[in-house]
Amino acid sequence: MNKMLKKASFIAAAVLLAGLNAAHAEDLVKVRFGTNWLAEPEHGGFYQAVADGTYKKYGLDVEIVQGGPQANNATALVAGKNDFYMGGNMVEVFSAVKEGVPLVAVAATFQKDPQILMTHPGVGLDSWADLKKAKSILIGPDFQATGYAWMKAAFGFTDEVVKPYDFNPAPFIADKDSVQQGYVTSEPLQVEKSGGFKPNVFLIADQGWNTYSTLIVTRQDFIDKHPDVVQKFVDASAIGWANYLYGDNKAANEAIKKDDPDMNDEQIAYGVSQLKAHGLVVSGDAEKGGIGAMTDEHMKSFFDKMVQAGVYTADLDYKKGYTLQFVNKNVGSDLIKK
What single string gives the DSSP state of each residue in 1-50? Predict the structure, then answer.
């Protein structure tokens, strides 16, 4: 009889616990966050906040919607299918303002754009000034219309040497007099493994290309209706990034590899090392305001460069493309190990 009572009590407790867990799950706010590419260490802080429960601690049930060649998560955000989007840099947001699309950057995860140019070592292309001597510069059309337009205005680069970059390093590896675009977190390792040499790497941000990158972007109507959700997502994401870079990120990395089976431990470790080495997340405004920080001065500086490069006209109301309402609060700064 006692065994039956104990069993009944155990079942009742289990049912009660399940009910409490279900009720708690119902209390969480469902959030869809669309990335701009396949899962990679450059998305690590967001995966970390899912894996270690930070988003749930903030009352959010976050689904990361993976981007990629066949996905368009920016469009999904505009259509209301997603709540947040990972913007590449401020060009996207300023262009949305130009087109009358009410997208707003609410945080800047990266203080520096990861874009780089690479050269072969020892062939006379060993400094930034040398790059103008290259016979060919392999870059994609998006960067040619923005970053390279700035490089022409600021440093005198020309269009005659530009050749299309299709994410295949073979032409660059074969041509020692060429320059190739890439991301500091990935392409240098790819070239080293495929070409057998370490390329010279020039982070374009260090030459004055000072756009923020890996932005958290949402719609103006979502900000108006759910400012509390925006604040929670920004804060939890900042904590996720601090923990990813300076804590135990194993669970996040496993989630990244699950979403993108082509990603491996070597590439992830390299990506994380470059994020830290170049201060992509923790530098500049983030050193004062915390991860995700943005300032009006920084925005104006970059916008002015885009005007000078002919990308935008000076009368564009670029301030519609961002808000400082949710950042510069040093959330998670105590977790950063320097």
Answer: -HHHHHHHHHHHHHHHHHHHHHHHHHHSEEEEEE-SSSS-GGGHHHHHHH
